[in-house]
Amino acid sequence: MMLFYVVVCMVIACAESVDTVAGGVILYTISHTALTLLPQIFIAYMTTLKWRRLVSELISLPFVVNAFVGVNISASIPQRSGWLWGDVIFAILLPAPLSPLIITLLWAERKARRLNLSPSSNAPAHQESFVQRLRTTASRLDVVGLLLIGASTALIFLPITLSNTAKGGWNNASMIAMITVGCVLIPAYVFYEFKFAAHPVVARRFVFNRSVVISCLVGAFDFVSFCISYTYLYSIVYVAKPWSLINFNYFSQTHIVALMVFGILGGVLMRFVHQSKVSAQAAVPHSDVAVVTSLVLFITEIGGAIGTAICPYLVPPPCPFSIISRLVDPCLVYPFSTAGGIWSHMMPSRVAHHLPFLSDAYRAMLLGSIYGATQFPRGNPVREGVILAYDDVMKILTFVATVFGAVPLVISFWMPNWYLGDQQNAVDNVDLSGERVGNPDVDGEMSERR
Fold first, then answer.
1. What value, to the nearest 5°, has the Cα angle with vertex 74 and ends 70 and 77?
2. pLDDT higher than 50, residue 442
3. Which of 31, 118, 221, 306 has the most CB atoms around its CB within 10 Å?
């Protein structure tokens, strides 16, 4: 996966067209997701509950340092070498920090084989054919299920953004057809996962597990709230503020610094409180306050937001962590499509309202590129009109984000209050060595109910 990441960075760096960059970004997302998920899997299986949140946040502490150091580097690269060299730097530097993780994996795999603990060491002697291996891999990856949920998500959310440019808008037959087919695919996906999938991504035991469902909902709504208010924030600030590139980059890192600092504080709280529910409910209001603060700051023309706070780190039963941690991924397209839909429907009319003296072609140019408005100095009627139009749209986006941000606080009250102690997970009540440990809150019967 690291080699795949390096190759993708080189593809983007060598791109000569927007299409190549877009394809590289898609492949980059795949490799980046895998690389960020791997450390979390390690932490989930190698730490006890009371330390898990804190350790998972501490490995992200370099982001705080990078928020100040990386800003200066990224600001100088476009001026001296061009932005494509940024991807070249990633391709060169990435193998060094990943080497300890790769060496640890190779060492663990070698030791497991030596102790006959690896599935491959106990595999039958006969070799499967290429077609059999392909079918086995597709079954383990649940390719059919992923295609169904991917197609359903795309067909439902694409019309939100495309309806403004399609002929007839929402009355266009293709818009209605896409949403209809997308909605039909949802029960088809559920039926396939429950009845036919050998290795389902969303297994029945996940759907009827209160801890898994609520923790996924909390994370999904928190992400939706954040992204709706954040998708066009930088475009607005870029036009509204006459900042230099380095100051703009400093602003772009504020949410990362807040995320890391409050995440570590949340981990410390979980370590000493030993209760997941209290820590989760303490974390959610910080996200809501961040959204409201962004609205106040924008209205006062200061702009921006502190960013999102920590997503509630709720402890699920011992289900496959790699699957549980990605269950909210189908929801991640929703905030971007929603923000895009609001933006594409409101922005043209608001620009026309504040800049009635401009021609339709010139207003289209301003909508097509944020650089068009920055050609005018602050105080110019064109730039001020664009800022006012941005302000109208951003108020709606922030209001919608605030509504979604209130949901996690409400549903977190239904989350089981797992005791965070020396156990590896909240059900088995055993430590990392397999020995049973004391748990004052959860016994076998309560674990089964939760």
1. 140
2. yes
3. 221
